Amino acid sequence: MIFSICSQMEERKREDLNKDILVNVLGRVGMESLLLDVPFVCKSWYKASREPQCWEHLIFPSYIKPDNIREEESPDRGFAERLAMKYQENLSVFAFVKFIVNHSCGNATIIKLPSRCPEEALEYIANECPKLKILDVGSYNLSAPYIYFGKDQASALVASLPKLEYLDLHGGSLEKEALLMILQGCKQLVHLDVRQCFGFRDDDAEILELASHIPVFMCEGSMVVPEIEPNSLHDHRLDHELLCDKINHDDCVYGLNFDFDDIFEDI
Predict the structure, then answer these.
(1) Which residue in 145, 166, 156, 151 sits closest to 122, CA to CA?
(2) Of the candidate ranges 12-21, 151-160, 172-181, the one whose mean pLDDT is the lowest
(3) 198 phi and psi angles, rounded to 5 deg
């Protein structure tokens, strides 16, 4: 009896929370809780979790599928296993990204993509997230497939997100022409990370001149591989993916390239 009364009181307390305050709080709890926990607390929390304002900062886990996680202690394992259980392992990375992006209804301002994210996701984000200020494609290294960024992707990015301020393409395949399009079209960039990319040289005078106005521009280690010209990088992605599967995952390091806590305060 006492437990029942207490439960009813707690329910009323949750229901009586100011909606604006609740939405503000829920927008900070993280994707896993917002998707798999909050909607099941009570009706008012479910309704609040559907508000686009809760989905402005989309920080995806590095991995969506449990089979792609080799470390038993990975912080992403629990989330991935819960997703697999809910969607019966039929959820593709692109489908999940699209599903989450749609929750924002075009209000997303920050997106950090998961590993093994297909190019279609970049194009979808460019078309559906006009308010986006920060796009982190992730730290792609030899344990994950390249992100390929060519002229078509750059054109879509510039056309849809000309006010983009932070962009991370670290470790991907990036054609020089695509980078030039980004530098010329995204005039409000204050942070551009294109380190260790394939497709242009880090000492290219034209690129350095166009990027000179960007407060934080990083391109160290980028190069044109002699046997793989920039216009043929796209055709070599499959070979790279097969090579990546053979590399010991334990030797690779993952991590965000931005201090998101600091960035949140500026937005």
Answers:
(1) 156
(2) 12-21
(3) -110, 130
CA distance 34 to 47: 12
Q: For all residues of the chain together, what is the average pLDDT? A: 75
pTM exceeds 0.85 for this model: no
CA 31 – CA 19 distance, rounded (Å): 19
User: Which residues neighbour 80 within 8 Å (Cβ) at sequence distance 6 or greater?
Assistant: 61, 63, 64, 65, 66, 68, 69
DSSP symbol at 147: P
Strand partners, 193: 168, 218
| Residue 266: partners with Cβ closer than 8 Å, 6 or more residues away | none
Q: Residue 21 to residues 17, 27, 148, 153, 187: CA-CA distances in angstroms?
A: 7, 10, 41, 38, 35
Token pair recorded at residue 252: 């690779």
Distances (CA, A) of 153 to 72, 124, 175, 177: 35, 10, 10, 11
Which residues, 6+ apart, have CB-to-CB distance to 56 below 8 Å?
27, 104, 107, 108, 109, 110
In the chain, the N- to C-terminal Cα span, in Å, equals 48
